[in-house]
Structures are given as structure tokens and as C-alpha cells.
């Protein structure tokens, strides 16, 4: 279990038994880590605003104030990524830190598998340049082969089958980075030039979008994270 998943699991463990405490030693045994690791994790959760407090005494331990926490949130992975994108509009405002904190709390409250899927999806999104980010294309998060009609810069329309790999957002438009079966290579499709698309039932083979696949001559894309 990685640290992010463990932090989520710690909160859920304390929520289930609240208001009873769990000792650091019990939690260390439960998650197969050291007591010191548990103490560091609890400190990190407290600093992020999770209402965990310590009860002293022989039967003491860590407690969670259930009244001031949320149960697992039924956000979809795409919704979580959309919120991370929306926070980009707060850059330069007095509320950027608060927005990032709110997103971290929401992700921590998501179901473990959904939070993991959201992090994987966010890793596919890259932003290029400064300025407002345009609306996210509606193909976000589709893990199926797409059939598209695509117009190039000269207006010539071709029909293609593509396997979505990632997304690059610029202040003026979005690119869908995909494996193009027509060209037998990775291509970047401007989403405003996709005349139409349909989603097939075919799940494409797993392909990883490598850093060199995003070697754009006029800037370095910044990966999106759920840390806001």
C-alpha cells in the first residue's frame, strides 16, 4: 500500500470506530508499518485539516471527530480531475491555497479505487502555457477506441480510429493525444477540429504516454495533479 492509500485508509479506520480510539501500535500492526510511520502519517493528516486528536492514558490513542468529517464522496475520477482543472482559474487569487486544501480533502474522502483512478487520469492531463484554461473536452476519461471525423488545418476531413492516451491544454484550445491507427503513430488532435466522434466497445491495449511523446517545441507541458 502506498502512502496516499494508507492515509485514506487511516482516516476510514478511525472513522469506523469513532469515537473510540486506536493506538499507534494497533494502527502500525494493521497497516504493517512502524509506529513512527503511523505518527508521521497522523501528523500529516492533522496538518491538512483532518480532525484527529490524541487521547492519553492506558486505553488512549488517536480519535477522529466524525461530526467534522465527510463520509466517502461519490465523485467520479473525471469529476475530481475537472475540479483540479477548475482550480487553475484560482491561480493568482487569494483563495488558491484554500482551493487546493479543499481538493485534497475531497480526494481523501473518495473511495480508494476511485481516488486511484482519478490520480491516474490526472497524470494523463498536461497544461501548456499561462492564462485561462479552456473547457475540458468531453472525451475526458474515455478508455475505449474512438471513431472520429477530423479536419486538418486545411479543412480536409478524414475518418480515423484512435486510442486516447492523454490531453494537453493550452490557453486557446485542447489537444487529445492518441495512437492513430490510420498513421500507425501517436498524433495530437485539436479537439475543436474533431467534427464528430463515436465510442466503440473495444478497450485498446495498454500504451504508456512517455515524456518524449510530449516533446513540444514551444513549451514544456506541466502535468496536472490532484494536489491542486
Number of helices: 6
Radius of gyration: 22 Å
How many E strands? Answer: 9
Query: Class by helix and strand content?
Result: alpha+beta
* Largest sheet entry: 7 strands, mixed
Global geometry: elongated
SSE succession: HHHEEHHHEEEEEEE
**Uncertain regions: pLDDT < 50 for 5+ in a row?**
none
Helical content (DSSP H or I, runs of 4+): 25-40%
List keywords for this structure.
single chain, 228 residues, alpha+beta, 6 helices, 22% strand
Which helices and strands, and how do they pair?
Blueprint: H1 3-17, H2 24-31, H3 35-47, E1 52-55, E2 61-64, H4 77-87, H5 96-109, H6 112-122, E3 125-127, E4 146-151, E5 157-169, E6 174-180, E7 185-190, E8 194-199, E9 222-223
Parallel strand pairs: 3-5
Antiparallel strand pairs: 1-2, 3-9, 4-5, 4-8, 5-6, 6-7
Structure notes:
The protein has 228 residues and is an alpha+beta fold. The chain has 6 helices and 9 strands. The chain has helices at residues 3-17, 24-31, 35-47, 77-87, 96-109, 112-122; strands at 52-55, 61-64, 125-127, 146-151, 157-169, 174-180, 185-190, 194-199, 222-223. The strands form 2 sheets. Strands 3, 4, 5, 6, 7, 8 and 9 form a 7-stranded mixed sheet that branches. A two-stranded antiparallel ribbon has the order 1-2. Helix 2 packs across helix 3. The longest helix is centred in the N-terminal third of the chain and has 15 residues, at 3-17. It is elongated, with a radius of gyration of 22 Å. The two termini are 23 Å apart.
